[in-house]
Write a structure and sequence with these properties.
It contains four helices and 13 strands. By secondary structure, the protein is an alpha+beta fold. Helix 1 runs antiparallel to helix 2.
Length: about 260
């Protein structure tokens, strides 16, 4: 079993291209439930079908290592807000939280024990535009002050920060994103600020930005004791299915 101390967090990263379904091995589709197979078959796009397949296998295989349960035997359910959780009653499952996100070709899974956790990853290469309706006035002004070439990346950084928070709370987009605000105080620090309707203490949330791959930006949000940042271990599933420990190189955080 994979050890995970109370209050700690593990972050797992893999590429969709690493998923090569075969009989047996890490990427075996045999671990999927019938319902998961049916949902996967319903995708009309081959890239979307492959990404969904890789994500579901990845989640099962990694979480099974913390629970000492075969990957195919894991059972999941969803809260009324759509957040998945593990149904198993085994003691190893108690207090274990996880969250998943994927971009076009990168999958990130965050796991913690005794902490709320949320993760979001975005691909900075994809086309898009800054959506001001999701930003506060201060955030919009800060983006407008940047050189045009930097604005899209800054928007995606703010988006992942907001998404990781609403996912960590378990409330999803039921929270107004424009009232979850992040100010860049210095080169490495983030200062969150919540609107009155959020009703959450800032001291209980930690945010960390990092780049899982050079072409992606991601945010990890963890809840817990005030002013306590988790110890984070980052692991990567390589194309040859080996597991490597990789540095969790934080670019900005609330505790910088």
């Amino acid at each position: 079993m994979m050890p995970l101390a109370p209050g700690a967090a593990d972050v797992w990263v893999t590429l969709v291209a690493s998923c090569t379904p075969a009989d047996g091995g890490f990427w075996s589709s045999d671990v999927l439930s019938e319902a998961e197979r049916n949902r996967n078959a319903a995708f009309h796009s081959e890239p979307a079908r492959t990404r969904d397949l890789a994500t579901r296998i990845f989640v099962r295989q990694v979480l099974s290592r913390y629970l000492g349960t075969p990957a195919h035997a894991l059972e999941f359910a969803r809260t009324r807000f759509g957040r998945p959780f593990i149904v198993q009653e085994a003691s190893e499952a108690q207090g274990l939280s996880f969250n998943i996100s994927h971009s076009l070709d990168v999958i990130v899974l965050a796991v913690s024990r005794g902490r709320s956790i949320g993760v979001d990853v975005e691909d900075i290469r994809r086309s898009g535009r800054v959506l001001s309706r999701y930003l506060s006035g201060s955030e919009s002004d800060s983006i407008a002050a940047l050189p045009p070439a930097e604005r899209w990346t800054r928007f995606l950084e703010l988006w992942t920060l907001k998404e990781s928070y609403v996912k960590a709370t378990g409330l999803g987009l039921h929270l107004p994103l424009h009232e979850v605000e992040f100010l860049y105080r210095s080169e490495r620090s983030i200062a969150p600020r919540f609107g009155e309707s959020i009703g959450s203490s800032l001291d209980c949330w930690n945010f960390q930005l990092w780049n899982p791959c050079p072409w992606t930006v991601a945010s990890l949000c963890t809840g817990g004791e005030p002013q306590s940042a988790p110890a984070v271990c980052s692991r990567r599933i390589e194309p040859d299915n080996t597991i490597t420990n990789t540095p969790f190189a934080v670019t900005r955080s609330t505790f910088a």
